[in-house]
User: What shape does this take?
Amino acid sequence: MRRLFWVGVGVVVTVVVVREGRKVVRRYAPTHLVDQAGDRLGDAQERARGFVATFADEFRVARAEREAELEAMLLADGQPDPAAVRAAQARGARPGAAFHAPDEADLPQDPDDPDSGYAFF
Assistant: This one.
């Protein structure tokens, strides 16, 4: 609770200092300097907005590519695409309906002991 109080005090002091500072600048600075500084600030804001928008777009694309790479690495051979499973679940299909396990006869067996019952994928 004490920290929250001091954060609030800091915010109030900052607002007061900024407002009073602007009044002093308007009173004593030449008009053309204030206008020039405002123009530069506007340009800097536009560049910052452009940078943030570009960064967000590139981040979204990179995140989607990395997600696709990780999904491809994690899926077992023959496992359906997770998007297809989600779509089937959204249609009301039961959770395992989209994935069909291969038949036991199709699975490779341990070559040293074919009767062991273990399958190696």
